Amino acid sequence: MLRKIVTIDPEKCDGCGLCVPSCAEGAITIVNGKAVLAADNLCDGLGACLGDCPRNAITIEEREADAFDEAAVAKHLAAQGKPAPAPHQAPAAPAAPHGHAHGHGHGGGCPGSRMMSFAKPAPEASQPAGSRQSRLAQWPVQLHLVSTSAPYFQGADLLITADCVPVAYAGYHEDFLDGKAVVMGCPKLDDNQFYAQKLTELFTKSDIKSVTVLKMEVPCCGGIAMAARQALAACGKQIPYKEVTIGIQGQIKG
User: Fold this and answer.
1) Spans of biased composition, class Low complexity (predicted)?
2) Which of 51, 152, 184, 254 could join 161 in a cystine, given CB atoms 3.0 to 4.6 angstroms apart?
3) Which fold has domain 151-246?
4) What pTM was estimated for this model as a whole?
5) Residue ranges of the domains in the chain?
6) How buried is 87 (Cβ within 10 angstroms: 0-12 exposed, 13-18 middle, 19+ buried)?
7) At a CB cut-off of 8 Å and minimum separation 6, what does 28 contact?
């Protein structure tokens, strides 16, 4: 069947093994000093391992592959003396106010692809529609579309945002975007090597004053921070750098 599945570039892989424990299904193993898929039917194609590869050797491709087989996963893990992956649940949350229920999780695989619903918070004082001021000072914002020589990057504090962050974090405009130039993208669905190259060009051409990366807590989101760090190392400049992780229910994790 034609489906999405992990692919590992042997030229980039240095066999560090960081991807192995991030795969709950045990689909990745080290053979002759390189990470490889043990079998296609063990890989769910959701990419929990993406953000753990320091060499950016792991990507998702669409190709002919055996269907993901949960029974095969359980047998494979049992042969290694490991339990089958537990059903994924939504992260524990504090007691919900006003009688609201906690979030609910469904499905398995990469936490970044897990379906979840959360209780709505108590409404704030009503405001007229559209009364809050956007802090966005440029367009476009997608990393694929921005020009690395755009004038708004010169002397700017740059905010690099995983594109789920503004949805999860309610105060995104006021707390992070205000006064900054911004680029955004999805490290799970896009090419992180392209991100690293584009950001290297941006840092080289523009007098960026500081870089802040906003990413979600899910493992696959680490790719956007990795691309930013690679670009900073490649550009040869000393630019102040900070990472902030946002929880899937909107809390700042660090």
Assistant:
1) 78-98
2) 184
3) Rossmann fold (3.40.50)
4) 0.57
5) 2-79, 151-246
6) exposed
7) 6, 8, 19, 20, 35, 36, 37, 38, 49
